[in-house]
Amino acid sequence: MDTLVHGFIGAAICSRTGLAGGCKGPVDSVGQRQLMDWTLWAAFLFGLLPDLASLGIHFSLDLIAGNGIRWSGIPGFVFVLYNFTHSIVGIVISLSLLAWIKRPLLLPALAWPIHVLMDVPTHGSGPFMTPLLWPFSEWQFAGWSWWVDPRIFYGSWIVAGVLWMVVLIMRICGSLRKGNHT
User: Fold this and answer.
1) Are the CB atoms for 109 and 95 separated by under 8 Å?
2) What pLDDT digit, counting tens, does each position of 158-179 carry?
3) Cβ–Cβ contacts within 10 Å for residue 73, how many?
4) pLDDT of 32 strictly over 80
5) Of 110, 153, 163, 179, whose CB count within 10 A is highest?
6) Rg for the chain (alpha carbons), in Å?
7) Could you tell me if 112 and 130 are in contact, meaning their C-beta atoms sit under 8 angstroms apart?
8) What pLDDT does residue 178 have?
9) Cα 53 to the center of its chain, rounded Å
10) Cα dihedral angle (73, 76, 77, 81), rounded to 10 degrees?
11) Using an 8 Å Cβ cutoff, are 91 and 116 in contact?
12) Model's pTM, two decimal places?
């Protein structure tokens, strides 16, 4: 799917500002509501991570070299990084290390596996099918290409919008409930 939509969906699901915050959303140490918190930005970035840590490197190197953004001439190491960041094995290793080193990042980091799960049905045949079991298996599911079918592209943005509308409704309902008890 579109890399940017992964960030918005990841933040909607895996941040205390999003659905993970429930009806209250993010609160500080004394229980006061906050409009946003660091988990929103962390979940957004973890939603982007699998693509930025692979293709983002290639595109950045191309821009620095003055080549613009090219889909040709992608170096082999980018495919290794892509396979690692889009594999259950890579996710489990990385999230296990993260849980051990910086446990508070674990909730936002769940945007990473959500990104990969969204990629499975939305990446068609070609070099960017999702290698879920890499390096143990080359099995990949040939889904529908989001970059070819505009319904998938626009549908993913609609899903992101609906998720954020649900968050807004939860906050409004939470505020109404809180107002009825005081």
Assistant:
1) yes
2) 999 999 999 999 988 877 676 6
3) 8
4) no
5) 110
6) 18
7) no
8) 65
9) 12
10) 100
11) yes
12) 0.88
86-125 tens-digit pLDDT? 999 999 999 999 999 999 999 999 999 999 999 999 998 8
How far apart CA 117 and CA 10 sit, in angstroms, is 11
Q: What angle do CA 145, 147, 152 make, to 5 degrees?
A: 70
Tens of pLDDT, residue by residue over 36-53, are 789 999 999 999 999 999
Closest CA to 27 of 41, 19, 14, 37: 37
With contact defined as beta carbons under 8 Å apart, do 159 and 118 qualify?
no
Q: How far apart are CA 74 and CA 60, in angstroms?
A: 12
Which residue's structure tokens are 């040709």? 72
Three-state SS for the chain is CCHHHHHHHHHHHHCCCCHHHCCCCCECCCCCECCCCHHHHHHHHHHHHHHHCCHHHHHHHHHHCCCCCCCCCCCHHHHHHHHHHCCHHHHHHHHHHHHHHCHHHHHHHCHHHHHHHHHHHHCCCCCCCCCCCCCCCCCCCCCCCCCCCHHHHHHHHHHHHHHHHHHHHHHHHHHHHHHHCC
Nearest to 56 by CA among 95, 7, 99: 7
Domain boundaries along the sequence of the chain: 3-17+36-180
